[in-house]
Amino acid sequence: MSWFDRLTGRERGDVDAGSAAIRHIAAALAALPSQEARVLAGFAYLLGRVAHADRVISDAESARMEELVREMGGVPAAQATLVVEIAKAQNRLFGHVENFQVSRELRELADEPRRRRILDCLFAVSAAEDGISAEEEAQVRQIASELGFSHGDYVDARARWSEHRTVLRNLRRQPD
Q1: Considering only CA atoms, which of 172, 143, 173 is closest in space to residue 158?
Q2: pLDDT tens across 142-173, in order?
Q3: pLDDT tens across 60-115, in order?
Q4: Quick one: how far is CA 97 from the chain centroid?
C-alpha cells in the first residue's frame, strides 16, 4: 500500500471509495450494510454542515442531529452520538474541502424520496435553536442544489419552515 493510500485511508483497488469524510463516519456504522452506512454518514455530515454554517454548533443543534440520525438510520443513541460527533469534527476540520464531494456522493447513493427527507431534516437542524439564520438558509440552499433539487423544490421545502426563518421574523417585527 502506498503512502498516499495510507494517508487517504484507501485500500488497494478501492479507488472509488468516495469522500474521506463519508469513509471516516461510515466506519462508526460498521454494523449497517455498506451503502446504508455511507448514506447515513453523508446525511450526518450534511446535518453538521448546516449546523456549522454560522461557525458554532449549539447543544440544541447537536441534540437534533442525534435524534435525526437515530430516526433515519435506526441506530442506537450511543452510536448516533458517535456519528454526530465525528460528522461535526469532519465539518470543522475539512468542510471547505469535502462539502461538494459529500453532497455529490449522497446524491448518487440516495433515491429522490430519501433526498427530499434529507432536505427537510436540514431545515429541522437549522430550526433547532431560535430560528433559521440567513447563513443556515444559504447553506441549505447550496446543499439542495448539490443534491439535484431545483430552486422550486427548495422553495417548497423551505415553505414548511417559514415560521422559523429569522429573515421573515425580522420583517414582521418592523414597525409600519
Answers
A1: 143
A2: 999 999 999 999 999 999 998 988 876 656 55
A3: 999 999 999 999 999 999 999 999 999 999 988 887 888 999 999 999 999 999 99
A4: 15
Q: How far apart are CA 54 and CA 68, in angstroms?
A: 20
Assess contact for 157 and 120: CB atoms under 8 A. Answer: yes
Cell of 14: 478501492
Q: Could you give the CA distance from residue 40 to residue 26 in angstroms, rounded to a whole number?
A: 8
In the chain, the N- to C-terminal Cα span, in Å, equals 68
- Domain borders along the chain are 17-173
Specify the residue for cell string 427548495. 154
Q: Give 94-97's long-range contacts (Cβ < 8 A, gap of 24+).
A: 94/20, 94/21, 95/49, 95/52
Contact criterion met (CB below 8 Å) for 123 and 161: yes
Q: Is 17-173 a CATH 1.10.3680.10 domain? A: yes
The label of the residue with cell 440544541 reads 60
- Helical segments of 77-133, H only: 77-109, 112-126
| Cα–Cα distance, 161 to 168 (Å, whole number) | 11
As given in the structure block, the three cell numbers for residue 125 are 437542524
